[in-house]
Amino acid sequence: MKTIGVIGLGIIGAAWARNYATAGVLAGTWNRTAQPDAPAWKESPEAVASAADAIQIVVADPAAVEGVLARILPQLGPGKVVVQSSTIDPASSAQFAARVEATGARYLEAPFTGSKLAAEQRQTVFYLGGDRALMAELEPLLAQVSSSRVAIGTREQACTLKLALNLNAAAQMEALCEALTLARRGGVSDEVFFGALEKNIGYSGLVKLKEPKLRAGEFSPQFSVKHMHKDMRLASRTAACADFPVLEAVRDALKTAEARGLGDEDFSAVIRLLETD
Questions:
Q1: Which of 87, 164, 191, 207 is 20 to 30 A away from residue 157, measured at CA?
Q2: Is the pTM of this model over 0.90?
């Protein structure tokens, strides 16, 4: 089996690195903020790229991916693969792929769904864009950290789908917070609200995941406000979607939440914007 290096040790990247290490395929890890206790830690992204067959990038945004690529490109060439798992826009994907392939290396767009718990339990789902032969080649490796690998189409389509799905999640989250607040203001208990919602067509995996946080008012990040806000900014620049009314509404809510110091909290913390003194 190929070896892999992970660049970016946030909530998701750190969980993947541990699972790759357990599987015996981790060749190196690096993070902009040093984490020398991380498995297979290297002192630079160049060292990770040199040591690993595949280099998986999972960082904050297109600018961060650009910074990583600028450093590792000299280490790439035939036999190397860049697995790009950060949430980025389609135009950036095309640009990054061209730069990687100019070295003789290959490039797979691999955004994903699944928060901290899913990553820890190897339940990540990858949305793969690019060459299907490369997807098949990397299947045994990506299977070490995920439950499903779904072929979407082109790299750009994989990026677009990821942004579309995050828009859906952000919109559901805002609606759930407003509905829960409406019920609370009417004197309906959380127990009654969620019990009734479970039997309603509006029940979803998002509700199941976020119910404990909303009921407890505990917003440690599974997926942060600042990252969802970033994704909605990218979505608004994709496929002429800037005038979508729901997208604009959730962008405004996330922007306000971040401005109020909630950027590092779970994106379910947007419910705090509805609280009254």
A1: 207
A2: yes
